[in-house]
Amino acid sequence: MRPTISIFSTAVMAMLLTACEPSSSEGTVRVAEDDSKLVIVATNTPLAYFAMRIGGHHVQAEYPGPSGEDPAFWTPDDASIQLMQEADLILLNGASYEKWLSQISLPQAKMVDTSASFKDNFLQSGETTTHSHGPGGDHSHSGTAFTTWIDFSQAASQAQTICDALVQKSPEHASAFKEGLERLRSDLDALDQRMRSIASRIGKQPLLASHPVYQYWARRYPLNIKAVLWEPETLPTDEQWNEIKTILQSHPAKWMIWEGTPAPESVKKLDGMGIRSLVFDPCGGPPDQAEGDWLAVMKSNLDGLEASFSGN
After folding, report:
1. How far apart are CA 13 and CA 267, in angstroms?
2. Which among 3, 76, 294, 300 counts the fewest CB atoms within 10 Å?
């Protein structure tokens, strides 16, 4: 039997001083041509996308991180720091996402912590192991869980905070910003409702996750997930396969949720253990051009979930 897998990869594309066309339900990225726009630098793709959707043609928004590196483990270089220092606003994810923040001098008045409104509801990652993948080198998932936006209700709160900051910075465009926010909130609410419906079909059946990045997603919807530390592109070691076997003794999962496209050999071996593979891409970094924007990736994630659990 061929392994079943829904793949929406986390490939990234370079973004240079981008802005979005107004009034589009999914936003169109283009190079800014009007230097009268508010310049916004965001520390990940979701925040840049929210800013573009809210600000429309009044803003240019950028995530300046490099291709192929998870923004959660990115450290800005000198050019990125200068870009932030010269920006009108710096959008932070918060929840320990920007681990470099205490080491870099940035204007306090320009920084917007988009998750501050729900900081009392932060979760701990539950993971203390340091490991390595990609060009970012060794890193740890210990401390506060930071993938806030895949709880789509929290994403809506982050969008509200961005809108408030834009209104304060450019009150003459307040009406346009609020209209942009309402359109974005409508899309986020639709994602939230759709995910709730899917979760009701999944129920409490055990799931595995390749990485400890789904804590807020699991809490919101709610899902019964146990995470390991596997890299999609890297074949697991014998020790990691043994860890899965131990987990399955008390958590008999039939699905592994990956954050990126897994190696075919991993999919095949999991399939032989009765575990099918499914990708839910958090899309912290820029998606591949063929995948569309952040909203398109989220819709694709839900398409894969719906197809996989349609019989439940």
Report:
1. 26
2. 3
Sheet holding 38-42, edge to edge: 29-31, 18-20, 59-62, 38-42, 89-92, 111-113
What digits encode the pLDDT tens for the residues 222-259?
999 999 999 999 999 999 999 999 999 999 999 999 99
Q: Are 47 and 162 in contact (CB under 8 A)?
A: yes
User: Do 106 and 84 touch, CB atoms closer than 8 A?
Assistant: yes
DSSP secondary structure code for residue 238 in this structure = H
In whole angstroms, what is the distance from residue 76 CA to residue 107 CA? 15
Report the Cα–Cα distance between both ends of the chain, in Å, rounded: 21
pTM: 0.85
Torsion angles phi and psi, residue 199, rounded to 5: -60, -35
Confidence of residue 4 (pLDDT cuts 50, 70, 90): very low
254: which DSSP letter? Answer: S
Return the closest-CA partner of residue 115 out of 145, 81, 89, 70.
Answer: 145
CA–CA distance, 96 with 94 (Å, rounded to integer): 5
pLDDT-derived band at 1, boundaries 50, 70, 90: very low
CB count within 10 Å of CB 39 equals: 18
3-state secondary structure 139-180: EECCCECCCHHHCHHHHHHHHHHHHHHHHHHCHHHHHHHHHH
